[in-house]
Design goal:
- This protein is α+β, with helices and mostly antiparallel strands and 90 residues long.
- It has a single domain, classed as Zincin-like (2-Layer Sandwich).
- It is 46% helix and 12% strand.
- The protein has a three-stranded mixed sheet, covered by helices on one side.
- It is globular.
- It starts with a helix and ends with a helix.
C-alpha cells in the first residue's frame, strides 16, 4: 500500500500501520496516530484506496470529521468527492 509514501508526501507521520480484516470500516486512526486499514483495500481501485489512506492520515491532525478536517482532506486529495462517490458504489 501507499501509506508510507503518502505520509511522507503530505508531511503527515503516523506511528504504526495495521492491515486487518475489518468488517464495518475501511480504515481508522487512533489518538496515538496508529492507522488500521481494511485488507480489502488492496482489491479497490487505486483512486479509492488512496482517498481512504489520505482520509486516515488527515486524522493524525484532526481527530474528528469537522469543517477543518474536510478542508485538510480536500487540500490533500482534491478528487475526494469523486472518490467518495465511487466508494459508496462498492
Amino acid at each position: 500500500m501507499r501509506t508510507r509514501e503518502l505520509s511522507e508526501k503530505h508531511g503527515l507521520p503516523f506511528n504504526r500501520l495495521s492491515i486487518r480484516n475489518q468488517q464495518t470500516r475501511w480504515g481508522s486512526c487512533s489518538r496515538q496516530k496508529n492507522i488500521s486499514l481494511n485488507r480489502r483495500l488492496i482489491l479497490m481501485p487505486e483512486e479509492i484506496a488512496e482517498y481512504i489512506i489520505v482520509h486516515e492520515l488527515a486524522h493524525t491532525v484532526e481527530m474528528n470529521h469537522g469543517k477543518e478536517f474536510w478542508k485538510l482532506v480536500d487540500s490533500l486529495y482534491p478528487e475526494r468527492k469523486k472518490a467518495a462517490q465511487r466508494l459508496k458504489k462498492h
